[in-house]
Amino acid sequence: MTYKMIVLDLDDTLLRDDHTISVRTKEALMKAQENGVKVVLASGRPTYGMLPIADELDLDKYGSFILSFNGGKIINYETKEEMFSSTLPLPAIKKLYDLSQREGVDIHTYVGDEIIAESDNPYTRIESDLTRLPIHFVNSFVEGVQEEVVKVLMVGDPDKMKSITERLQIELADEFSVMRSKPFFLEFTEKGVTKGTSLNQLIQHLGIKREEVIAMGDSYNDQEMIEFVGLGVAMGNAPDDIKKIADHVTDTNMNDGVAKVVEEYVLKNFVNV
Hints:
It contains ten helices and 14 strands. The chain has helices at 23-34, 51-56, 90-103, 122-131, 141-144, 158-171, 195-206, 223-228, 240-245, 257-265; strands spanning 5-8, 38-42, 65-68, 73-76, 81-85, 106-111, 114-117, 135-137, 152-155, 176-182, 185-190, 213-217, 231-234, 248-249. The longest helix is centred in the middle third of the chain and has 14 residues, at 90-103. The two termini are 17 Å apart.
């Protein structure tokens, strides 16, 4: 099989624990792009938090794309055109806030280039560190969010978030896409919006078959795209249940797991690489 697209989650997949790309991985991805393979970044991060990585990989030069907010936005990185955007209306945001209060966890979202939060907590601080977005603390979350947003997160202790996830995925199945991206992050987007559904839109637009796509990820918000593509890859650091649904399990994000897949399944098809 000749693969035409490589789709990559960022945190704990493409990126090492210090949020950098290894030299080996970067070289493999640049060689793939030089040979006409599209490299697409697909993350739960807001768009702004993905730009430094997109720039480092020259996605604009090679006419590639970003799927941000768990697929809530599709960006043509060459033209900066927003090809798709999904949002949650204000009543939905209020409902999620009320549920966060019921469950006793914190909540945040994104407005412009800021994280909006009502209370200071270590998990929102982690998100700020990952995305390089400042936190704007407000007295009232509901009053502080006066426009539709792409995604809302509930955040808290991992053990607590696990039980909340199981409960809310059932309770909100008809209203939202509900998924965990990290043990302490529970993410909400418009119903039917995931990395997998947005990737499907993108490849249909480009005329690429799903069998011609490799997708790599490490967490539950990667599950749909891993199942959707021709070669779905779980990282060595992924949970066991994500590994079970993957076609292939590679090495960890700290041991060039992405590079090893690109070298084995993509670069071997090209001469003089």
